[in-house]
Write a structure and sequence with these properties.
Structural class of chain A: alpha+beta
Largest sheet of chain B: 6 strands, mixed
Oligomer: heterodimer
Number of strands of chain A: 12
Largest interface: A-B, 90 and 92 residues
Helix content of chain A: 40-55%
Shape of chain B: globular
Number of helices of chain B: 17
Number of strands of chain B: 11
Shape of chain A: globular
Helix content of chain B: 40-55%
Number of helices of chain A: 18
């Protein structure tokens, strides 16, 4: 019924006289101003610690990140989120006998100890004047954390509550399953611990994790924004240059797999289906990476991309479809993620597949590709134009063992990609028959739609 | 004392590069935003704020129409209309606006808030003229088909599903609390919209909404970033100068009666497995001393690691892992213009009772009464300044554009951006204590709890 009305109205408007007036063209704009990466000063210390100073911008604030090359990737199978629990405990302060939170609050900052897949970061963001003092506080927390037993049960309970709440969300359920299937034997696939696992962690185990993974060799200190460089260097010299060397960075390489499996996790009555659909591709250290990145932008990674134009702007199946090229150490993933209307679940997957196959069969026009290359070049400038962005770009090089030329030549390399390369990348990497599909949705309503689309047996969970 | 002096000196050097245009210097402000403000003949408010940090420029267009005052039989329409602004204008068809921005190396978005709807682009600075042309094109008029409208009704309904209907705690508390805490329809209706109302919207509604509210005399345009102001002025005149102004209807009465009794509500949530609570206190009128005092109370109670509620509920009692909160969950304390609440919320365990939570909150509030010291005030101001500077530097200049446009639309005075610190510094412990007793009283608050219908189903694996 709805479709009939829709078509009728569509025809009605097509029958209206067209706008004969000639359209005005947008002004092209002037010549681009050059962009170069912000100047930085790098100091390497004998114990392996690195200090990176980037004076930047006009706002009187300083962003301080102490980043260590350790994170969830260094957890064993029965240690999921142990790194996070250690970080929570580190936020409780230092043995140096002062209240860290109160001290940093007096500088306009907070203490954040955050754990990612590849890194652990001690971060604060303070009024410019306080940068050296704040770095001193962060250094105390890093080198001499208090790790109080008295707070451990409370922090474990917080963690368990957060896990329970998080796993009631369809997006969390889907990502847990998706990454779990693709990385069955690697920390990359262990997205959430069980609450029993969290209960089992002891203070001794946390301390062992700290001892095994924390040290100067894995540490880079970033200070970006407005600050007194000499005083910052003095703090590093006094508080960090003599810290123990610790272990070298150690990232186990994953062997991701994907062979077209389909999984539905039942969420009875869900008005939408949450979709993760993708497979392993190249890593940033692979020569194909930049071309693959451009391909992703064109296919599904930007607002104007093909998949988004199709399932959002043409069909209205979804609000926030997005494809990602995720970087892991020596490997990568490409996947489309979208929450689509339940009744159009099969149709959405079908359209995503169609767009991939179309790009496999036909190179994009030069104009379409040039538009995406311009977009990517603009994004590059934006990525390097905030204190957080600058740190994140430099850290990316560090995590993936990339030379500085990767960043310096990125725009040049983006613009060297040809339409034929985009087609070749799609053919080589993004193979629908190999893609892992995870759907969280109303099983009864979607299972037939999905079978019709994929033509493979559907595996059901719960 | 010494610290303040040093900071001031340092800033003198930093701002020297662009302070020539500034005739007035703020006495105590340590960071001065360049502000050039004028109006076109058609009433468009224009704010220029150069900053050479990066070779990019922000174009932000703010219309003085938020979701509060959308048509009564069309809940969610202001937001649906925001989507229509990307669907086609005289010279840019569907997807062409989006592609124009992207192909020029930029990003774009729009959002609908309590009291404005905004549209912005961040582009390489040599593309400023292109963006001014494009924004003016859609201010001149839209060219929307039923097809486009139907498509965006589908997209917006999916937005509501993904953010509210298919999520535990969906809409809690940002969408829920205004509906419980307020009594005037304008402040208390569902801003995202009933799906029925969204379906009922037609092209006539689109046309009428546009011609009523989307006029230059009901808008502000900010340009922030690396550009030449004289050149920008020429382009703005060329592209926006001939757009006719309109008779904008007077703003309806959106005031709220004074609250005299505590309000308590429970929301059943069939997707949630842990209880959650939100507590909201009605704000004093904007720009009064009490308003600034509430801003500082937000810092003392809610913001940052040393906030009193955090110390009590997180560190001491372990009821929750974090407390979210602030003034205006869809923005901040500066970018709204009407009734508002200071609110905080958090999830907690099924084993903890609501009474235990309220008792702990009241202990913090009682301790606060009459006990504000100068030291607490000083720390609140440090945190406030730090947050404010973050906003001035955030998102390539968008945060700055947001304040400039809000103050232009609401106060006809974007230079307020440079006076905010002064206002906070004028607040005394006496004003703080008066504000606590008048506004942080139980009878001025609304308590909303989420009853988790999945509480017995804590299965996580």
């Amino acid at each position: 019924m709805k479709t009939t009305v829709y078509i009728f109205l569509l025809c009605l408007f097509m029958a209206l006289p067209g706008n004969a007036q000639k359209k005005e063209m947008p002004p092209k704009g002037g010549e681009p101003k050059g962009f170069s990466l912000p100047e930085k000063e790098v100091i390497n210390y004998d114990n392996g610690l690195k200090l990176v100073l980037v004076p930047y911008g006009s706002i009187p604030k300083a962003t301080i990140n102490i980043t260590l090359k350790t994170g969830n990737i260094n957890e064993k199978e029965d240690e999921v989120w142990m790194a996070d629990l250690l970080a929570d405990l580190m936020e409780e302060g230092t043995t140096k006998g002062y209240d860290v939170k109160q001290r940093l609050a007096g500088m306009g900052g907070n203490l954040n100890v955050g754990v990612g897949t590849h890194t652990t970061t001690l971060n604060t963001n303070v009024l410019a004047d306080f940068a050296p003092e704040a770095l001193g506080v962060l250094s105390d927390v890093l080198v001499s954390p208090q790790l109080p037993q008295s707070e451990l049960d409370r922090l474990k309970n917080n963690m368990k509550r957060d896990i329970t709440v998080s796993l009631s969300r369809p997006g969390s359920q889907a990502s847990k399953e998706f990454f779990g299937e693709i990385f069955p034997d690697h920390p990359y696939g262990r997205i959430y611990p069980t609450t029993e696992m969290v209960d089992s962690y002891t203070l001794d185990e946390l301390k062992s994790f700290y001892n095994a993974n924390f040290g100067a060799q894995r540490t880079t200190v970033y200070v970006v924004g407005k600050f007194d460089a000499d005083k910052v260097k003095e703090v590093v010299k006094n508080q960090l240059a003599g810290w123990r060397k610790g272990p070298k960075a150690d990232y186990p390489v994953a062997n991701p797999e994907s062979d077209g499996a389909v999984t539905i996790i039942d969420r009875p009555g869900a008005p939408q289906s949450t979709i993760y659909y993708g497979l392993p591709v190249a890593s940033p250290s692979n020569d194909d990476y930049i071309a693959l990145d451009v391909t992703n932008s064109l296919l599904g990674g930007s607002f104007g991309s093909r998949i988004t134009s199709n399932i959002r702007e043409d069909k209205g199946y979804t609000y926030s479809p997005h494809s990602s090229l995720s970087s892991y150490y020596k490997t990568g993933l490409w996947y489309e993620n979208a929450d689509v209307t339940t009744e159009f679940t099969g149709a959405s997957i079908d359209e995503i597949k169609k767009e991939i196959v179309r790009l496999q069969n036909e190179a994009p026009s030069k104009e379409e590709l040039q538009g995406i290359q311009n977009y990517e070049s603009g994004i590059y400038v934006l990525q390097n134009s905030t204190p957080g962005g600058i740190i994140s770009q430099l850290n990316f090089l560090d995590v993936h063992d990339l030379p500085e030329s990767f960043l310096v030549n990125k725009v040049k390399n983006i613009n060297a990609v040809t339409p034929e390369q985009v087609q070749a990348m799609t053919k080589k990497y993004i193979k629908p028959e190999k893609m892992t599909l995870v759907i969280v949705g109303d099983k009864e309503k979607i299972k037939d739609q999905v079978q019709e689309t994929i033509k493979k047996p559907v595996e059901k969970k719960q | 004392m010494r610290k303040t002096f040093m900071l001031f000196l340092m800033l003198g050097i930093i701002s020297a590069g662009f302070s020539q245009n500034e005739s007035q210097k703020q006495k105590t402000s340590e960071f001065n935003v360049p502000v050039e403000y004028y109006k076109l003949d058609n009433g468009l408010k224009v704010i220029l704020s150069p900053d050479k940090t990066s070779p990019t420029v922000v174009v932000a267009t703010y219309y003085n129409i938020g979701f509060r005052i959308e048509p009564k039989d069309r809940t969610g329409f202001a937001h649906l209309f925001e989507h229509m602004m990307f669907q086609g204008s005289q010279n840019l068809g569907k997807m062409e606006f989006i592609k124009l921005v992207q192909q020029n190396g930029g990003i774009l978005n729009g959002s609908t808030r309590f009291d404005f709807t905004n549209y912005f682009e961040v582009v390489p600075s040599n593309k400023l003229e292109t963006m001014l042309w494009a924004e003016s094109d859609r201010m001149k008029g839209l060219d929307i088909t039923q097809d486009n409208l139907t498509n965006q009704q589908g997209v917006v309904k999916n937005e509501v599903r993904v953010n509210v209907l298919n999520q535990p705690y969906g809409g809690f508390p940002w969408l829920d609390m205004p509906q419980y805490a307020n009594s005037n329809w304008y402040n208390a209706h569902n801003f995202y919209g009933d799906l029925k109302d969204l379906d009922a919207a037609n092209l006539e509604d689109v046309e009428k909404f546009f011609s009523t509210y989307y006029a230059p005399n009901n808008a502000a345009l900010a340009v922030v970033g690396d550009f030449d102001p004289a050149q920008a002025k020429e382009w703005i005149k060329k592209y926006f100068g001939k757009i006719p102004s309109a008779n904008v209807p007077p703003k309806p009465d959106i005031s709220e009666p004074k609250q005299e009794k505590e309000k308590v509500f429970v929301k059943n949530d069939s997707l949630a497995n842990k209880p959650a609570i939100a507590i909201a206190y009605n704000m004093p009128e904007r720009n009064t001393p009490e308003y600034y005092a509430m801003g500082l109370l937000d810092q003392i109670l809610v913001e940052g690691d040393n906030a009193l509620l955090r110390k009590k509920l997180v560190d001491e009692l372990g009821y929750t892992s974090r407390i979210s909160g602030g003034i205006n969950y869809l923005g901040d304390m500066f970018n709204y213009n009407g009734p508002m609440q200071l609110m905080f919320d958090f999830t907690y365990d099924n084993e903890t009772s609501k009474d235990q939570i309220i008792t702990a909150v009241d202990e913090v509030m009682n301790k606060l009464s009459g006990g504000i010291t100068q030291e607490m005030l000083d720390n609140a101001i440090v945190k406030m300044r730090s947050q404010l500077y973050d906003k001035l530097g955030s998102s390539f200049g968008l945060g700055r554009a947001d304040l400039l446009c809000s103050f232009a639309l609401f106060d006809d005075n974007p230079s307020r951006i440079n006076n905010l610190e002064d206002h906070f510094r004028k607040i005394t412990p006496e004003i703080m204590n008066k504000t606590i007793s008048e506004y942080l009283r139980k009878t001025n608050r609304t308590i909303l709890t989420v009853n988790p219908l999945l509480a017995d189903n804590e299965k996580t694996n």
